[in-house]
Specification:
The protein has about 160 residues and is an all-alpha fold. It has one domain. Helices cover about 95% and strands about 0% of the residues. It has two helices and no strands. The chain is rod-shaped and about 195 Å long.
Protein backbone atom coordinates (compact mmCIF):
# COMPACT_ATOMS: atom_id res chain seq x y z
CA UNK A 1 0.00 0.00 0.00
CA UNK A 2 1.21 3.17 -1.08
CA UNK A 3 -0.01 6.22 0.47
CA UNK A 4 0.45 9.48 -1.16
CA UNK A 5 0.72 12.38 1.08
CA UNK A 6 -0.95 14.79 -1.36
CA UNK A 7 -3.88 12.54 -1.87
CA UNK A 8 -4.44 12.19 1.92
CA UNK A 9 -4.29 15.95 2.38
CA UNK A 10 -6.72 16.45 -0.48
CA UNK A 11 -9.14 13.99 1.09
CA UNK A 12 -8.76 15.67 4.48
CA UNK A 13 -9.41 19.09 2.91
CA UNK A 14 -12.38 17.68 0.98
CA UNK A 15 -13.71 16.08 4.13
CA UNK A 16 -13.36 19.38 6.04
CA UNK A 17 -15.10 21.29 3.23
CA UNK A 18 -17.97 18.78 3.24
CA UNK A 19 -18.07 19.03 7.00
CA UNK A 20 -18.21 22.87 6.89
CA UNK A 21 -20.90 22.77 4.21
CA UNK A 22 -22.91 20.21 6.20
CA UNK A 23 -22.45 22.23 9.37
CA UNK A 24 -23.60 25.39 7.69
CA UNK A 25 -26.47 24.02 5.61
CA UNK A 26 -27.49 20.73 7.19
CA UNK A 27 -26.30 20.71 10.82
CA UNK A 28 -28.06 23.92 11.94
CA UNK A 29 -31.40 23.00 10.31
CA UNK A 30 -31.09 19.48 11.71
CA UNK A 31 -30.30 20.84 15.20
CA UNK A 32 -33.14 23.37 14.94
CA UNK A 33 -35.53 20.57 13.92
CA UNK A 34 -34.31 18.51 16.89
CA UNK A 35 -34.69 21.52 19.19
CA UNK A 36 -38.21 22.14 17.91
CA UNK A 37 -39.03 18.49 18.47
CA UNK A 38 -37.60 18.64 21.99
CA UNK A 39 -39.60 21.82 22.72
CA UNK A 40 -42.74 20.26 21.28
CA UNK A 41 -42.31 17.13 23.40
CA UNK A 42 -41.66 19.29 26.49
CA UNK A 43 -44.74 21.40 25.77
CA UNK A 44 -46.84 18.24 25.32
CA UNK A 45 -45.56 16.88 28.64
CA UNK A 46 -46.35 20.24 30.27
CA UNK A 47 -49.79 20.18 28.68
CA UNK A 48 -50.33 16.60 29.90
CA UNK A 49 -49.34 17.71 33.40
CA UNK A 50 -51.80 20.60 33.24
CA UNK A 51 -54.49 18.30 31.85
CA UNK A 52 -53.81 15.83 34.65
CA UNK A 53 -54.05 18.61 37.22
CA UNK A 54 -57.23 19.91 35.57
CA UNK A 55 -58.65 16.38 35.55
CA UNK A 56 -57.94 16.04 39.28
CA UNK A 57 -59.66 19.38 39.92
CA UNK A 58 -62.67 18.37 37.83
CA UNK A 59 -62.84 15.02 39.59
CA UNK A 60 -62.80 16.74 42.97
CA UNK A 61 -65.42 19.22 41.76
CA UNK A 62 -67.67 16.44 40.48
CA UNK A 63 -67.29 14.52 43.73
CA UNK A 64 -68.30 17.65 45.65
CA UNK A 65 -71.28 18.10 43.35
CA UNK A 66 -72.26 14.46 43.84
CA UNK A 67 -72.10 14.93 47.60
CA UNK A 68 -74.24 18.06 47.28
CA UNK A 69 -76.71 16.19 45.09
CA UNK A 70 -76.87 13.31 47.58
CA UNK A 71 -77.46 15.76 50.42
CA UNK A 72 -80.13 17.53 48.39
CA UNK A 73 -81.77 14.20 47.58
CA UNK A 74 -81.81 13.26 51.28
CA UNK A 75 -83.28 16.65 52.10
CA UNK A 76 -85.99 16.25 49.43
CA UNK A 77 -86.83 12.79 50.75
CA UNK A 78 -87.12 14.16 54.29
CA UNK A 79 -89.29 17.03 53.07
CA UNK A 80 -91.53 14.61 51.17
CA UNK A 81 -91.84 12.39 54.25
CA UNK A 82 -92.67 15.42 56.39
CA UNK A 83 -95.24 16.60 53.85
CA UNK A 84 -96.75 13.10 53.76
CA UNK A 85 -96.97 13.07 57.55
CA UNK A 86 -98.64 16.49 57.52
CA UNK A 87 -101.12 15.28 54.92
CA UNK A 88 -101.86 12.18 57.01
CA UNK A 89 -102.39 14.35 60.09
CA UNK A 90 -104.66 16.67 58.12
CA UNK A 91 -106.68 13.70 56.81
CA UNK A 92 -106.99 12.34 60.35
CA UNK A 93 -108.09 15.74 61.63
CA UNK A 94 -110.65 16.11 58.84
CA UNK A 95 -111.98 12.60 59.54
CA UNK A 96 -112.21 13.38 63.26
CA UNK A 97 -114.09 16.64 62.56
CA UNK A 98 -116.42 14.90 60.14
CA UNK A 99 -117.06 12.14 62.70
CA UNK A 100 -117.88 14.74 65.35
CA UNK A 101 -120.24 16.52 62.96
CA UNK A 102 -121.99 13.24 62.16
CA UNK A 103 -122.27 12.44 65.87
CA UNK A 104 -123.66 15.91 66.63
CA UNK A 105 -126.20 15.63 63.81
CA UNK A 106 -127.18 12.17 65.01
CA UNK A 107 -127.59 13.42 68.58
CA UNK A 108 -129.74 16.30 67.35
CA UNK A 109 -131.85 13.93 65.26
CA UNK A 110 -132.24 11.56 68.19
CA UNK A 111 -133.21 14.50 70.39
CA UNK A 112 -135.85 15.57 67.84
CA UNK A 113 -137.18 12.00 67.66
CA UNK A 114 -137.34 11.85 71.49
CA UNK A 115 -139.25 15.14 71.53
CA UNK A 116 -141.64 13.83 68.88
CA UNK A 117 -142.11 10.62 70.87
CA UNK A 118 -142.83 12.65 74.03
CA UNK A 119 -145.39 14.77 72.19
CA UNK A 120 -146.97 11.63 70.72
CA UNK A 121 -147.02 9.99 74.16
CA UNK A 122 -148.70 13.06 75.65
CA UNK A 123 -151.28 13.03 72.89
CA UNK A 124 -151.92 9.32 73.46
CA UNK A 125 -152.25 9.91 77.22
CA UNK A 126 -154.72 12.70 76.64
CA UNK A 127 -156.72 10.56 74.22
CA UNK A 128 -156.73 7.63 76.66
CA UNK A 129 -157.68 9.90 79.54
CA UNK A 130 -160.54 11.32 77.49
CA UNK A 131 -161.60 7.84 76.47
CA UNK A 132 -161.54 6.67 80.08
CA UNK A 133 -163.42 9.72 81.22
CA UNK A 134 -166.05 9.12 78.53
CA UNK A 135 -166.48 5.52 79.60
CA UNK A 136 -166.78 6.52 83.26
CA UNK A 137 -169.31 9.19 82.48
CA UNK A 138 -171.33 6.94 80.17
CA UNK A 139 -171.44 3.98 82.46
CA UNK A 140 -171.96 5.66 85.84
CA UNK A 141 -171.08 2.45 87.45
CA UNK A 142 -170.51 1.46 90.99
CA UNK A 143 -167.20 1.61 92.81
CA UNK A 144 -166.08 -1.89 91.88
CA UNK A 145 -166.65 -1.32 88.17
CA UNK A 146 -164.84 2.07 88.47
CA UNK A 147 -161.80 0.32 89.89
CA UNK A 148 -161.86 -2.32 87.20
CA UNK A 149 -162.07 0.40 84.56
CA UNK A 150 -159.09 2.28 86.06
CA UNK A 151 -157.05 -0.95 86.24
CA UNK A 152 -157.79 -1.61 82.57
CA UNK A 153 -156.77 1.96 81.77
CA UNK A 154 -153.47 1.54 83.65
CA UNK A 155 -152.79 -1.74 81.85
CA UNK A 156 -153.34 -0.03 78.52
CA UNK A 157 -150.85 2.69 79.53
CA UNK A 158 -148.27 0.06 80.46
CA UNK A 159 -148.69 -1.59 77.03
CA UNK A 160 -147.99 1.75 75.31
CA UNK A 161 -144.75 2.39 77.16
Amino acid sequence: MNLEFGQVITQIIGFLIVLIILKRFAWKPLLSILEERRAKIKSEFDKLGEDKKSLKELTAEYEDKLKDIEGLARQKILEAAKEGQEMANQIKENARKEGLEIMNRSKEEIQREVEKAKVQLKNDMVNLSLLAAQKIIQLKLDQEKDRKLIRDFIEELEKIE
